[in-house]
Fold:
Amino acid sequence: MSLRKYLTSRVFFLQVLAAAAIIAILGYLFMHWLTFTTDHGHEIAVPNLARLTEEQVEEKLDELDLDYVLLDSVDYRSEFPKFSVVEQDPLPGTKVKVGRKIYIKINASGFSSVKIPDLIEKTYREAVPTLKALGLEPGTITYIPNLGKDMVLEMRLKGRNLKVGDRVLKASKIDLVLGDGKASYVDESEVDSTAAPVEIPNDEQ
Structure:
C-alpha cells in the first residue's frame, strides 16, 4: 500500500483517533495529579496568632495543616503577655496553601537592662534622643539654680541618684535635674569684707 493510500485509509484515521484519545486521557490524569500534589485552588486564611504562646500556636496551626518557624524573641513589650506572639508573617487573613510556614516572633520575658549614659552637662535636647535610643524615657524635670540653662545636672530613678554606667531596665523613666539659667554670683574681688568702715565726718559736731 502506498503512503498516500495509507494516509487516506480508515486504519490511519482510527490510529490517529486512538492516539488523540490516549493523549487526552494522559493530560487529564496529569492535571489531576498536579492539582493533588500542589493542592491547587485550596487556600487557607492565616489566623491571628497575636498574644498566643508557642504551644498554642502549634496547636492552632496543626488544626489548619500549617506550620510555623520561630525567628527570635523581641525586646519586651509591656502590652503583650510574656512569651506570646508579637509579630507574624504572613499577616492574619492572608490566603496561603496547606503546609505553608508562618514566621513568628515571641515577646521576651521582661525588660532587659541598659547602662545609664553620660548626660551630665548635656542639654535637655541632647539628653532626650540619647535616652530614647537606649529604650529609656525622660521622666520628671526639676530645675535648680544654675547658670547652665536646661543643662543636665543630675539623673534620678524613683528618687535615687544615678551615676554614669549604672544599669536600669529598659522603658524606665529617668528623671532629670536641669539648671534654670538664673543663678547669680558675686565677685569677691569687688567686696572686701575685712576693710575698715569709712567714717563720714560730721561738720556739725
Confidence is low (pLDDT under 50) at residues 186-205. The longest helix spans residues 10-38.
